[in-house]
């Protein structure tokens, strides 16, 4: 769940603090002076404010470090470079072959390795020539493979950038929420201490005191989960950024003015988004290039059925029917048994498979775009419809609850029941806002481009 979820939860915490302080003051008003002094701590805030110390990090700086240092991106870049090197290799000619036959011992001259005109020496050189355009076809296949590797790089970049931005936003909101927890929990503890003093005078029930402690327990457990989430997000960010200076420090994301950033998917049209997806989705473009690569491979395999030609020349000093023999050599395999039938069949099957994958991917992209846009629009519509009224209604209800308590119409248990009802409703609103943000990110990821929500 995205960390902005925790921000809405803070509304519940602040509302509770407002109630708890008001509740404590009301109790203090009914106590004698001695009890009032004993419970003055109820309304005092903890003088130790939460201060987060760490390395400030903006989103732009994080993305810059990510593009420069990320090891997965580096690995993907190197894969592209290796494919470029394969193009060079595919275009190289085969090396010529030199064959030398030298007589070891000449019985007539009684010399070893006689290289004079009386000795026997044979030299032969051959060059292999690929027929049916095999070399050009190999170069073309290598170029398609390089293009596929480039799209795989962009797809890796797309996935990792989504992970980077999500982790950054989650850490940003989590750290802001942690400040509220660090300030709120001591105040709740003070309220409970005051309620315990009141309980000693038998002015509240044990069940009422336990209800307050249960609220504190929930805050403590939420804070523990929040710290766990912060550590997890920091771990992910540090791995993604791979910056030595950031490994041993706390990361403090900085996003000035993000709270007021407003964007809505309601204005987006499916057809326009689909065109954007067909143009920008690297996984789709990669499959299209794979189909072209398989076509090039099939053409190469058919060319491999054509025998290659080896041309050369030979010189034989004394081992032929005449001395100083010069000749021309031509060699070519006869395609009687092996005509590359198996590789051709395998390539045809692979091409058909890639075409089916591409067709399925096209259907998937169209379906994903329309589904993601529909979900984003619905979540945005629902949130915009109920967000303002929900917050305003509960704010008005909070004031009414305080007024009713002043008139002794409500007990602390009824207050707690209201808190739980408020919490349940707030969690639903939290889930709605979280679902909306998730839908926005899924839509951007599905389209293959940030269509809205860019800072």
UniProtKB/TrEMBL annotation:
Q: Name one Pfam family in it.
A: OEP
Q: Which InterPro entries does this one have?
A: MdtP/NodT-like, OMP_efflux
Q: Which SUPFAM superfamilies match?
A: Outer membrane efflux proteins (OEP)
An annotated Gene Ontology molecular function? efflux transmembrane transporter activity
Domain of life, source organism: Bacteria
Similarity comment:
Belongs to the outer membrane factor (OMF) (TC 1.B.17) family.
**Protein name (Swiss-Prot/TrEMBL):** TolC family protein
- Organism of origin is Leptospira semungkisensis
Q: What is the lineage of its organism?
A: Bacteria, Pseudomonadati, Spirochaetota, Spirochaetia, Leptospirales
